[in-house]
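Minutes, project check-in
Item: structure for the 237-residue chain
Input as provided by the requester:
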Amino acid sequence: MTRLEQTIIAEIERANSIWQLFTANEKLLVAVSGGKDSLALYHLLRQYPLQLAAVHIRLSKGFKIDFLERNNLRDEIEVIETDIYDEIKAKESNLNTCYLCSRERRKRILQFAEKQNIKKIVFGHHRNDVVETLLLNLIFSREVSTLQPKQVLFAGKFQIIRPFYTLSEKLLYSLQKEKQWYIEPDRCAEAKSSKREYIRELLRKLQKDHPGIDVSDNIFSALQSVKSSFLPFPPKS
């Protein structure tokens, strides 16, 4: 195991000690998109004594899937064929396209987990995703909320866990470079014009304008330092 892998596993251990995300020999389903985050997650969780399954949701028959062959994962990751992207594009809806796509993709993952009798689904969201979601919800949804490290669904029928919760995305870029994984390009036409991409660009500009601080790390740290006595309204139940 390389020094970088040890560093990232130390962060997984840290998250696991705080939120009790998984235990030895537990059955987990890893959602693998083909990006660096989920590939790193699947790779590192294989270092643990776990019963791992992995699934990729193909959003359209028109979307190529090259990462399985090029990373020698064809026999390890189940592919669920869908027409989610085409169906959403064909509908007229006031809801955000990325939101609809994410909701439908998660629905398919949960259906697969149920068939496999797996209650815990693992996503590769990291610290930067937590910060982006916080700002997205604050600006566009008028609420102070973000991703949870452990999220209970349907009265405990499923749990979503995020072992990379405290991890900086920079380390995942470095691991992808070290391992030379092939990363599946984002084939969604909406990706570059999404609200999340807008928030990412905003954070990049803030970081460029303030090189002396780690902007994303400061925002993430603020989640641990909420001064309720300086907030004007009590939280809604």
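Outcome recorded: Residues 3-225 form a domain with the Rossmann fold fold (CATH 3.40.50.620).
No further action items on this chain.
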